[in-house]
Every structure is written in C-alpha cells, then in structure tokens.
Amino acid sequence: MIKLSTVNRRILETIEDSKFPKDIKDLLKALLNVELKNFADKYPLYAKDYDRIIMNLAEARKRKEDR
Amino acid sequence: MQLDYVHMKNFRQYLDAKVEFARSPTKNFTVIQGANGAGKTNLVNAITWCLFGEELHVDSKYKGLPLVNTTALEKKSENLFEVKVELQFTQSDGKKMLVTRTAHYKEGEDGSLVEVQSPHSLTVMRQVGREWTPQIHGDDAQYIINNLIPPSIEEYFFFDGERMDDYFKESTSRDIRSAVFQISQLELFEKLIEHLGARKGSFLKEARGFSPKAEEKRQMIQIHARSLEVDQGELQILLQKKNEAERLEEEFGEKLKNSSLEHIQRLEDERSELDRDLTGLRDQMAEIEEDKLKLLHRAMPVVFAYGALQKTKSMIDGRREAGLIPPLYQRIFIENLLKKGNCICDSDITGKDEYSAARRKKVESYLEASELSEKSNELIESNVHIQKMMESIVNFPDDIVGLGKKLNKTLESKEEKEKRLRKIDKEIGESNVENIKLWGREREKYAKEKDRLIGEIAKKEQLIERRKNIIRACTIELNQELKKEAKHSSLLDLLAFCDEGIKSAQEVRDSIMKKVKEEIERKTSQQFLALIWKTDTYKGVCIDDNYNVSVPHVSGREGLGTLSAGERQVCALSFMAALNSVSGFEVPIIIDTPLARISTEPSRNIARKLPAYLQDKQVTLLVTEKEYSPEVRKELSERVGKTYLINVIEKERGNLAKVELID
Predict the structure, then answer these.
(1) How far does Cα B559 stand from its chain's mean position?
(2) Are residues B220 and B153 part of one domain?
(3) Do B151 and B218 lie in a common domain?
(4) Which of A23, A31, A59 to mutate to test the interface with B (most CBs of B within 10 A)?
C-alpha cells in the first residue's frame, strides 16, 4: 500500500501562519495525517479516526470554555 | 536530499553498473549520455523500481518482460537469478540512507522465467551516527521511502523529456489542476473537507435524533408538582372533614347508642324479660313458701309431739326388751291350729286322748293370751309409727333451712331485677324521642358525609398517586432528556467545531491553491520566457482560475496552439520545474532526454538558462549525443560534476550496456 508520510511543508506553514485558533490548527493537522495514512485507499475508513480527533478537540475546547 | 549513487545488477541492460551522481552545490548536474535505446530510460526505471517497485517510465518494448539481464541468463551458473538495484541518498541532515530492492527469478520447466517471491525484496538502512540501522524490510521500508519521495508526485521529479512535448496537448485543465493539487498535496485537503463534511452530516443526523424535550418535561413536572401540592392540601382538608364527620357520626352514634329507639326497644325488651323473670321468681317464691308450709304442716305435729313420741317409743322399746310384750301370736292362727288338730310341731291336738287333750288345752290357753297379743301388736305397730314419725322429721331442720335459703336467694334475685326494672322504667320514662330522631338524622347525615368524603379522599389519593406516577415518569424522561440534551449539546459543539474546521480547511485550501497557482504560474512563466529562444514573442504562461494554461502572444492572441514541439517541451519543462519547486520535497531531478525535440540554438539557450532555475537541486540529465551538443556541453560545463557514457556492448541484441565515467 502506498502511503504518504509527510504533509507538504507549505500546507503546514499556511496552517501555522493562519489566525485560526490553536485547536482548529491541531484539527487540520491531525486530519491531514489521517488522510496521509489513508492516502492510497480508495474507500478509506476514516470516520473512527475523524470522530476521535474531532471529539477530543471539541471536548477540550468545551472544557476550556467552561473554565 | 541528494542521490549518491545507483548500483544496478542484472537489471535490464545493466549487468553490473554503478553511477555516482554529482553532489557539489556548484556542480550539481550529472550528465549521462547514451544513444537512443542504450538504456537511459531504464536507468530512470531502475531508480523508480528500486524506490516504488515499479518501472514508471518503461518503454513499450520492455513491458511485461522480466527485469533480469539477458546476458546474465546466458552466463548462468545456477538456476536462481537475482536482480538488484541499490540507491544511496544523502539526506538534508547529512545522514546516508541505503535502499535496496531485489527480485529473484528461476527458470521454469518450459524455459520461461518465473519470479520467486521474497519477503525481503525491499530493504532500507539508515545511518545513525557512524553506524547503520539494521535492515528495515517490506512496508516499513516502503513507508520510509514514501516519506521522502511520494510516488504520486514522482513524475514531477523524474521527467520524461520526450513526453513533455505532448504534455499541454494531452493535458486538460483538470489534469493541470490535478497536477497542482498533487504536488501541493491539496488533494489531502479536498478529502479532508469532504470527510469532515461527511462527519458533520453524520453528527447533524445524530443531533436530529436527540432533539431535546427537557424543557417540555421540566414544565410538565412543575405543573404536576404544583397540582400535587394543591391536591395534597385538598386531601388534608378532606381528611380533616372526614375525621370531623367520623367524630360527629360516632358522637351521635354514641348518643343514639345510649338513647336511641333501639335502645329503648332493647330496654323494653329487657323490661319484658325482667317482668317475666319476676313473675317466675314470684311463682318460685310462692312454691317455696308452699313447700315450707307443707313441710311445717307435715312436720309440726311430730315436732310438737316429738318429746312424747320419743318417750312412748322409749317406753315400748323398754317393755319389749323386758319381754313384757308377748309374741305376736295371731288368734286366727291358733284357731286354725285347733281346727286342724295339728300343732305347729306336728303333734296331735285333737284331744282324742289325754295327751292330745293336754296339748289341746295348752294351745287353747294361747287363745286367751292372744287378747293381750292384740294390744301388744297395737303397741308394736304404734312404735313403728312413732319410729316413722320421728324419722320423718330427721331432715326437717335442714329442709326448713334450705327452703329458707332458697327463698332468700330468690328474693334477692327478685329484688335485683325489680331494681333494674325500676331503672329501666326511669330511663324509658326520661327518654326524648324527638332528640333521638334528630340524633339519628344527624348520625345518618354525618355517616353519608363521611362516606362521601371517603370516596372523595380515595379519588384524591388516586389522583395524587397518578400525579406522582406522572412526575416519576416525567422525571425519568427528564433525566433521559437531560442526557439527550447533554448529548445534543455535545453534538452541537461537534457540529460547530466541524463547521469551523471545514471553513478553516477551505480557507487554507483556497489560500494554498491561490498561492501555489500564482507561484507555479509565475515560475512557469518566468522559466518559459527565460528558456524560450524567441524573445519578446510571448507575454508568458498564464494559468487561470480554472487551470486553463495559456501562452499569450505579445499581440494578444493565444499562442499555446501554435507553439512548436520544442516550445511546448520548454513550456512543459518550465511547468514541471515550477511544480517541483513548489512541492516542498527535496528530491533530485532526473530529466530524460530534455532537449530531444529542440534544435541546436534553442538547446544552447536552455542549457545556458536552466542551471539558474535548478540551482538548489541535484539534476541528472539523460541525453543523446545529439542533445548533448558541444554548445550545450559548453553552456553546462560549469555546472556538470560528472559525465557518463552508456556504451552498448552488444549492440545487435541490445541486452548489455556499460556505464563509463568520462568526465
């Protein structure tokens, strides 16, 4: 299976240089890694990884807001 | 990352060939010269096969053929043939990495070659300090390679110059867009946005299933709780009323119990019974009196004469004991004896003889004595009577005392009953019938009121229980709804987070797309204008928002369609070089026959300008003798670090080539 292991530096730099909140930057980077992992799959099973990442970050944001 | 060398063993034309690449920052070009068919493309294929397990630039004449060198087959000394390509890189941190791929073949029964699968066909070794890591095999090794050179963008590093001519003829705007997306990995972002949208849709769907009704339930509980409070208050009032009614019912009942018509009736009945009892007692007393009187009548003469009778009896008993009272001969008995002439001793008393006459006389004397006997008899009889009379009053004292006691007891009973009778008479006499009737009505009224209140209380209690059940059920539902609410809220958070993620991803994607496109456009245009030999003919290369490539002529008309083959190749080369430069990957560039379609003068121009645009890259040019003309050679001389010549040793069969370093 062909895999990509590195996200283009330009993408990472654009994300980092953006004015998005840190958790959104983390979300995009984490999801990009999922996409990298599944790059060669025609029908990748991404939902579980996506849900885990989204929930973790969304809950962390909620906890931070609650504090 | 730079390529140190490629070492090929038994790969296609190469029996055992090693090419070391120029790695100096100033002399970063390696030129490998070879005639058409000598094996230039297969050298590139050796590299792609080693890296990805595929010959990505394979010529149609080699497709499907085993990789193994045919000369090696002829010189076989054993049945198993090994094909091996080894690449060594120097990474940006200065560490070496060695990639080796092998394939093994054996001759089948029909003489054809069959590949023997090997679990360790690919190995990677990395330098750590001065040491090398143990060999890494299979997927892990492939992962490391892909990490450095993504296979999807391989063609932007290993160009096929021959095909570049057709690049803009064959490629649509979609292909161009795809190329930009691939090189900048925006495909990942497209997928990310698509998948994030799908997750958002999933959360949205789930959230719809959790539309919370907690507030509705909470209001319902409040309504029922308030109603319950009111009901419980009303229940207390009803209970108080019931208790009051019960108390009054009991009170009037108590009055009636004591003064009711029934009570009077009971008194009347009791009085009748008492009357009957008294009558009986009176009769009983009369009988006792009579018995007493009879007893007195019967016993009194004896009692009065008891002394005389006792004296008489004593006197008779004394005479008798003294023998003064003769035997009790009955006259008739003696007369019968005389009549029969036979004594009780059976002696003859007929008097027929002397003796008989004597005896007869004696017996006759008894006739005289019989008169006395009569009197004695009377005395004896009288004595018996006296005895009987005296015996008859032996129990008299007890009897008379017993009767007296019985009479007294009866009298007491009679007096008691008469007393109760008088009390009853008094009570009956004092009873107020109107009050009794009133009390009866009151008792009945309060009994009905109590019953009604009991019914009301039962209904109220049922209502309260029902309300409690509703509250309980609503509380359970509320808890579920609260959980749903929490879940819903959490899902809304996720949705909001997804939305923000999608918007951010789109923004990043659009920003990168714009920047990448602009950069590619700028660099392509810049390089094209620099490399093209017709100066001042074209304005440059434009890539519009839909990724349509155009080469506007200075006159304003579109020039892409009228570009010569060489110009198209330069345009494609510029585009590829631009893509490469924006890729972000530090991969050596290998260009196969870059100047094949370009005539001498333009080739010279390209050779002069190209190094400037590929200054920071390690470049390998695979050229024909014609391409690598003295002019080109001269222009590149300052940048070329190594020059090789591929010599076809067995030209006729073309199955063996040697690579020689010539400069």
Answers:
(1) 71
(2) no
(3) no
(4) A31
For B344-386, the pLDDT digits (tens) are: 888 889 888 888 899 888 888 877 766 666 677 777 788 888 8
Residue B355 CB neighbours (<10 A): 12
Q: Please give, rounded to a whole number of angstroms, the shortest distance from the CA of B49 to a CA of chain A.
A: 14
pLDDT score, position A4: 43
3-state secondary structure of B89: strand
Residue B475 belongs to some domain of the structure: yes
Residue A3 pLDDT exceeds 50: no
What domain range is A33 assigned to?
Answer: 9-66
Query: Measured between CA atoms, how close is B627 to chain A, in angstroms?
Result: 35
ipTM for the whole complex: 0.92
**Total-model pTM:** 0.55
Q: State the average pLDDT over residues B43-51.
A: 91
Within 8 A of B192 by CB-CB distance, chain A residues are 28, 31-32, 35
Which of B469, B488, B507 terminates a domain? The answer is B488
B198 vs A47: CB contact, 8 Å cut-off?
Answer: yes
- Residues of chain B neighbouring A24 (CB-CB closer than 8 A): 500-501, 504
Interface of A with B in 27-56 (CB under 8 A): 27-28, 31-32, 35-36, 39, 46-47, 50-51, 54-55
Residues in B touching A53 (Cβ below 8 Å): none
What total of structural domains would you count in chain A? 1
List the domain range (segments joined by +) for residue B248.
214-259+433-488
Query: Using an 8 Å Cβ cutoff, are B288 and B407 in contact?
Result: yes
Has residue B65 been placed in a domain?
yes
Look at residue A1 in the predicted model and tell me its pLDDT: 31
Assess whether B6 and B147 both reside in one domain: yes
Q: Is residue B389 part of a domain?
A: no
> CA separation (Å) from B225 to B214, B222, B231, B459, B481?
16, 5, 10, 18, 18
Burial-class residue B530 by CB neighbours within 10 Å (0-12, 13-18, 19+): middle
Question: What length does chain A have?
Answer: 67
pLDDT score for B171: 66
Residue B231 has pLDDT above 80, yes or no: yes
- pLDDT averaged over every residue in chain B: 83
Percent over 90 (pLDDT), chain B? 20
Q: Are residues B218 and B153 in the same domain?
A: no
Is the Cβ of A10 closer than 8 Å to some Cβ of chain B? yes
Instruction: Specify if A62 maps to a domain.
Output: yes
Which residues of A fall within a CB distance of 8 Å from B501?
Answer: 24, 27-28, 31, 54
Of B82, B75, B19, B69, nearest in space to B47 by CA: B19
Which of B488, B509, B534 represents a domain boundary (last residue)? B488
Structure tokens at A12: 């990472």
CB-nearest partner of A24 from B139, B504, B584:
B504
Q: Is residue A1 part of a domain?
A: no
As to burial, measured by CB atoms within 10 angstroms (0-12 exposed, 13-18 middle, 19+ buried), residue B179 is: buried
Segment B86-122, tens digit of pLDDT: 999 998 778 899 999 999 888 777 777 778 877 678 9
